[in-house]
Specification:
The complex is a heterodimer. By secondary structure, chain A is an alpha+beta fold. In chain A, strands 3, 6, 7, 10 and 11 form a 5-stranded antiparallel beta sheet that branches. A 4-stranded antiparallel beta sheet of chain A has the order 9-8-12-13. In chain A, strands 1-2 form a two-stranded antiparallel sheet. Chain B is an all-alpha fold. Chain B has helices at about 1-5, 15-50, 60-95, 95-115, 125-150, 160, 175-200, 205-235, 240-250, 250-270, 275-300, 320-345. In chain B, helix 3 (about 60-95) runs parallel beside helix 5 and helix 4 (about 95-115) runs antiparallel to helix 5. The chains are: A alpha+beta, B mainly alpha. The interface between A and B is large, with 74 and 73 residues.
Amino acid sequence: MNYPVWYLPQLGGGLLIAIIAILHVVIAHLAVGGGLFLVLTERKAVKTKNSALLEYVRKHTWFFLLLTMVFGGMSGVGIWFIISLVNPAATSSLIHTFVFGWAIEWVFFIGEIVALLIYHYRFGKMDSKSHMILGWLYFIFAWLSLVVINGILGFMLTPGKWIETGSFWHGFFNPSYLPSLLFRTSISLIFAGVFGLVTGARLKNKEMRRTVFRLCARWMYIPLLVLVLTGIYYTRVIPAESFENLFHFNRESTPFITLIIVSSILLFGLGLFTLVNSSQATQKAGALVLVVICFGWMSGFEYMREIARKPFVLYGHMYSTGITLSQMDSVNSEGFLKLAKWTGVKELNEENLLEAGAEIFRLQCMACHTLDGYNGILNKSDRLTERGLEALLTGMGKVNSYMPPFAGTGPEKKALAAYIYRELQGKTTQKEVASEAPDLPLEILPFDPDTSDYVLLVWNDLGMHCISDNEKYFSFLPPANTLNAQLFKRGPLPELVKTGVTIEYAVEEGYEHPEYHSMFWEYDEAIFGTDLPEGTGLMGKGVNGTMELQGAVYAAQLIPVLPYRDDKTYNPYPLFTIRAFSESTGEMLAYTKVVAPTSNEMGCRNCHEGLWAWNEVSGMADLTAINILEVHDRYNGTTLLADAEQGKPRLCQSCHADPAVMAPGRPGVLNFSTAMHGFHANYLSGMDQEACNLCHPSHPEGNTNCFRGRHSDVGVTCTICHGTLEDHALSLLAAQPDMEASERLARQLEPVFVRSREEIKPRMPWVMEPDCRSCHTNFNIFGDGFDGTAFNRWVPAFEALYRNRTDNHGVMCSACHGSTHAVYGAYNKYGLHRDNQQPLQYQGLAGTIGTHGQCMVCHTVEMEFNGHHRNMVNRELPAMLVE
Amino acid sequence: MYDSIIPTADTIPVHWLWFQVLLILTFFVHMILMNFLLGGSLLTVWDLLTGKLEKRTPGSIPTLVALTVNFGVPPLLFVQVLYGHFFYSSSVMLAVPWILVIPILILAYYGAYLFVRKVDKAPVLSRGALIFTSISLLYIAFILVNNNTLAMVPDRWGIYFKDPGGWNLNLGEPTLWSRYLHFLLAALAIGALGRAILYRYSKIDKKEQEGQIRRNLKLFGWITVIQFAIGSWFWLAMPEAVWKTFMGGSFFATFMMVSGWLLALLILHSAFTGRLTAAMILGGLEVLVMVIIRDLARAAYLKENFHPSQLENVHELSPLIVFLLVFVLGLLALSYMIRLMFTSKTSKS
C-alpha cells in the first residue's frame, strides 16, 4: 500500500525469494558449521600428525571459500535485494527497527571474510597454532553472524513484547530466539558434515576417504538429537495459530511437511552409506545426492517457517500484503484505493470497477499471488462465482488464518471479485433474472357448515422441505416431506378424532413418479444404508398412501415428493388431496387439499458455481457438488470427492450429527447445522436476510420464495426471528463450546442482535428455535414486551416448538395457523392462495382458521370466550387477506 | 500527485546525523575499494588487450570483490535508513536489471577467481573471465547509477504505471551518462593510483618499480584532467536548483565544490611530479569530498520532498552503543588477525 508492487504475473516475487533464500540459507548454515569443521579437523590432523588429513582440510577450505564467501556472501545480499523488491514495506520495517543489529552483523561478516581469506591464503604458511586461531576466529564470527540474524529472523515469527514496546531488545531476544539458535546451529553442524563429504569423496587415497567419511558421519549424526529436541522446543514457542496453520486445517503446509519428513528420512537414512565401504564413484554420487537433499530439507523448513508466519510477514504487526494491523481500520472505513500510494485509481465507480479491481489485485494480492504462474490466482479462484469470490474475500483470515484479511471497503471487495472473475477468469456473471412463477389454477374444495360433520386440517410440518438433490456426490436433505393431519368432529364442543378413521393422501397428477427425476433411489444404499423400492421414502411412504396416528396427529412421514412434474414444470408446491374415511362404513367423512412445499432451489451455486441441474430451473449441478466437496476435502483432509467418484457418496450427517435426520454423527465433529452456519457465517458476515437468501430458497425473486406466510408481508424477515447469520451461527456454536472447530469458527464472528457473545444463549438446531411468544406475548399480535426480535428467545425444548405445540384441547398450533414460514394469510408465488386452501375452504377467509369469529368452522354454536388460547376472539384487527 | 506517491518513511532509533555520518564514512571506504576493483580490472583488461599484461597478475581482484561488496553493505544499510522510501520505490521500478546485479556479481566474483587461478593453465579462459568480470562490474555500476538517480526524482515515478514489470531504467535522466562516466573515470583514476601503490610495495626491480609508479601516476593525472570536463558536464546537467547549490546556493556545498576543484588541481601537480604519498592523500581526500558532494546533491534534488531531519526519532540509544562497542572490538580483532598473518610465517604443520 505504501510502496509500488513489482508486477510479476507469472513468476511471482514469492518464488524468487524462495529460490534465493533456500540456496543462500543452506550455504549460510554451512558457513557456520563448516568453520568449526575446518578448525577441528585441522586440530585433529595436527594432533595426529596426519598430513593427508591436513591436506584434505586445505582442499576443503578452498571449496568452502568458493561456496560460502562467494556464493553465500553474495546471495545474502541477494536476499536483501529481493525482499526489498517484493515486500519493501516489511524490509523497511526490519531495516529501521534493527539497523544496528544489521550493522553489528556486518562487523561480524567482515571478521568472517578477513579470517577466512587469511586462513585460506596462509594455509601451510603459518604456524599451526596461529592458523588454528584464525580458524577459531572465523567460526566465532560466523556463529556470531548467526546469533544476530537469528534474532531478526525469529522476530519476524515471534516478535514478543516488541509489539507493545517497539524495543529493539524485546524484538531481538524474542520467544523463538533460543530454540531457533540451537536448531540452526545443529543444522549448520549437520551441513558441515554433508558438505565435507563432497571434498572427501574426491580424495584419491581409499583409506583417507574412509577416514573422512567416518568423520563427516559423526558431524551429521551427533547433532541430530539436538536438532530433534530443539525442533520440538521450536514448535512450542510459536503462536498457537501458527501451529494450526502448519499442522492442522491448512492444507498449504502439507507438501512442505511431507518434504521435510521425506528429506530427513533420506538424509539420515541414505547418510548411513558413509559408514560402509563403497567405491569412489558411489561416494561421489552419494555425497552429491546428500547435498541435494540438504537443499530439499531446507526448502521444507523455510516454507514451513513462512507458512507459520502467515498471514503476516511480521507476525502480529504487518500482513503479507504490507499493510499493518494498525492501518486496517482506516483502510476498511476510508478505502484501500484512497489510502494506497501507488495506484492510478483513487476513486471507485461503476465505470472503473474492473480497473479498480485490477489495481487492488496488484497492490494487495500480488505480494503472494501471480495471475497464472507460481501460486497463481487463476487456479485458486476457478471454483467460485463472482459472488463466491466476494464471500471468500469477506472470510479471508477468519476460519483459516493463512490468508490476511481483505483490506478495503465493501465496494472495493466487489471490484476485486469482479476483476478476478470477469477479467482474469474471463467469465461472465449473468444478472439474476427474477423467477416468474406460473399462477397455477386452484380449485377450492367445497365445505358446507350446515351439513358437514367433520373438518379435516392438514399441514406440512416445516413449511418448506429442501432437497440437496445431487446424491451422486452427497446428500444432506433427501426427498422427505411430512404431512400432519387432525380430523375434528364438529359440534358445540368439537371432538378430535383419533380412532375409527382412515386418512389417505394422494399427490396431484404429474408428481406420482419422483423416481423419474431423482438419483435418490440410485444411491440410497450408499448414502442411507437401505435399498428402498423406487418411489418410496425413507419411512416407507410413497407419494400416495395412508397416514398413521402419531400422538395427536395423523402423519405421513418423509414422503419423497419432488417439485418436478413429469411435463417438466417446476412447482415447489405440489398439492396433496387428503381424504378421511370411516373405517366402519367406508364413507368419506371429509377431504381437503394441502401443499407439500418441497424445493431444491439450493443456493450453493450462488458461490460454488454450477448451473441449475434440472431443466435450467432448479437442482444442484455436478459442478456445484464437486466444488463443495473439493473445498471440504481441502479444509478437512477428507476424501469425499474421490469417494463419491468411486460410487461412494456420503450423507453429510454421517459425520455431522443432526436432529433433523436423527443422525448421531461422529464424536468431535460439529453438528450439521452448526458446521454449515458457523463456517458460512464467516464468509457472509455483515449482511441481513440476503445472507439467508443466498443459501435457502427464501429469496423473493427465486423460484420458491419459501418464506411466504403472513409475516413476510408485514416487514418480518428471517433475521427478525433467527438473528443475522452471525447471531444464528454463534447461538449454535455456543452449544458446542468445547470443540476446537467451534472455537475456530466463532473467533471472528461478532454478534449483531446482542451486545456480546456472552449474552447469546446456546441452542441445539431443530430442537430449540425462536419462540413465537417472543413477539406474540400473551398470544397477542403485538403484545407487551415486544422489542422487534425473537432472536435469543428459544423455546425451552423440542415439545415447545411451534410445530409440536397444542392448545389445552390437543389442537395443534399449525392446524389452525398453518405451517411454519407459511402461516395462513400466506402469499404463494405459484398462485396467491395455494397455501390458504383450507381457511378458504372452511371459512372463506384466508387467515387463521377461526379468525374473525369464524368459530363455526368447528363449533356449531357461537363461541364468546378464548377456548384455545388468550386473545383469540373479539380482536379488532382486519384479516390480512379476505376473499 | 507525487507528494501522495512518495511512501511514508519509517522511524529511526537515533538522531539522523548518526546515520548521515556513518553513511558518508562507510560509502567513502566502499568507493575507494570499488575504484580499486573496477579501475584495476579495467586497466588490467587494457593491459591484456594491448599485450602488456605481465606474468604477475593482479591476484588481489577476488579479494577486492569480497571487500568491496562487504563495504558496500553498510552504506546500502544506512542509505535505506535515511532514504529507504525513495530507494525501495526506484528499485522496484527497475527491479529486473536491479536483481540481475546479484547473479552477475556472483559470476563476476567467480570470474575473478578464474582469472587468477587459471592464468597459467588456461590463459584464454582466464582472460575471458577477466573481461567478463570487468563488463559485469560496468553493468553493476550502470544499474546503480540508474537506481540512485531514479530514487532522487519522484516527479518521474509516473513511468511505473506504464510498466510496473520492473524494466524502467532511468535513461531519460539528463545526468545519467555524465554521472556514469564521471564515476567510471574516477574508478580508472583511483585504479591507476592503486596500481601505483601496489608497485610501491611490490618486490620488483627498483627501476621498473619507479617507472611503473610514474606511469600509473601520470595515468591518474591525465584521467583527472578529463574529469574536469566530465565533472563539469555532470555538474551542469543537474537541475539548475541543484547545481546552483554548489555555486553559492549553500555555503557548505560551495565550499565542498571549491575544495574538490582545488584538490583536483593539487592531484594534477602530485601526479605529474611523481609524488605518490601526496597523490594518495589527495586522492583519498578527493574521494571523500566527492562522496560528500554526492550526498549534498541528493539532498538538493529531494529538497522539495524530503530531508532526513524529518524522520521521526524514537530515541533508542542502546543498540547504537552496542554497535560501536562491537565495531571497536571488530577493529581490534581485524588488526589482530592481520598482525598474526604477518608475524606468523613458519609452517610447523
